Amino acid sequence: MTSPRPSTLKQLRDSGWQPKSVKHELRDNFLAALKRQDDLFPGIIGYEDTVIPEISIAVLAGHDILFLGEKGQAKSRLMRALVRFLDEYIPYLDIPGSPVHEDPFKPITRAGKALLRDTPEDQVPIAWWPRAERYAERLAPGTKFADVIGEIDPAKLATGTSMAAEDALHFGLIPRMHRAIFAMNEVPELDELIQVGLFNILEERDVQIRGYPIQFDLDVLVLFSANPTTYNRSGKVIPQLKDRIGSLIQTHYPAERSLGIEIMEQEAGLEPGGEFPVFVPYFMKEIIEQVSVAARKSKYVDHASGVSARFSIANYRTMVASARHRGVKLGEVPAVPRVSDLGHLPASSLGKLELDLMGSHQMSERQVLESITAEAVRVVFEEYVDKHGLDDIADVFAKGVKIEVGDMLPSGEYARRLKRVPKAWEKAFEVNAGESDAVRASCVEFVLAGLYASDRISRSTRHGRMTYET
Length: 470
Description:
By secondary structure, this protein is an alpha/beta fold. The chain contains 19 helices and twelve strands. It folds into two domains: about 10-250, Rossmann fold; about 255-470, no CATH class.
């Protein structure tokens, strides 16, 4: 049976517990995890050979860290993941109303010091701070000096507290995270006054509020995130703050589409089975991720802003939802997403793309989305053409064949219509092996959309139905 944790300062001292700085604590636990060959950052995909080694070195070096990258590159997740390398619990002086969790052996506030001076060790109460509560973060826009560093509390002055007394101070988030981790997101958006306060904390590890004469020796790991464009823009971040950040970690989007798909599936968190199951052909996953890839390369989209992984995740959920909606209404089990389901992507896409307003070609966001979706279908289709020789299918339409499809057209209807076309259609089913009508319908739509996107056939749309012909 595990012995209870010490509840008094004397018990704590007798237990042999020794204080560590938060960076020392992180380093020791990180080294132990390395020795055990643990998965250091569970759920982080595609950074094994790039970002994670750099974070590892920064943690072992005891640095404050800046995560520099475009939106949707897991910057916040990486910062939050560092919490797992803290001790499960640490002791602190149990002082009612104390704004900080005091080191029992080295308090920084007047109240903490007075408690140790005036109270026998066997009467000094000790409580334990859990790992999960030792992390706080703040988004820079709208943040005030009092929020993160502190201010003189006018309510306390009104009750007669002297402005020269420590009790007159209201502590902000960083002092309250003494012996813990504080993260500031989008640091270039911070007011210069706050940036000055931050670099004082980074350099001297103290807090100075309106010239208050006492300095607080803070123990805190400070993390930052920023977009490269705004961080490197002259005047957005003062040089003294940049100089005091120990390590800069550059994040990135997935280097390969397959990694993007893996992230998309993991983060979407969809249950493919259940009462209304959905089967998603791999080429449909490829198209959804390729839409994001195409958006990141598009001349119509602001490259400085980037296109978040959340774009793929939201679109993947929409596509699956559309297929499940059809499956339930038409009684198809399992439901299988088709290219016509991509017609619902505007609902999950619009507002997530920041257009390049300086470009010479002005298009609406909806037009840009249609363009990059067609491009994504074309890219994935051309890969399958090379693999399966699907180019021959275009010859079918030279004979006047017309095929009408739509997101609410029963899969059995596709099967009936396919009886009218030559054997060349059988090649379409090499795309995704499957005997069900729903899988075949999805394959057929993919081939049709690919032929259209690569200018081999034409398409007309009316009332949600699409007709393909020469």
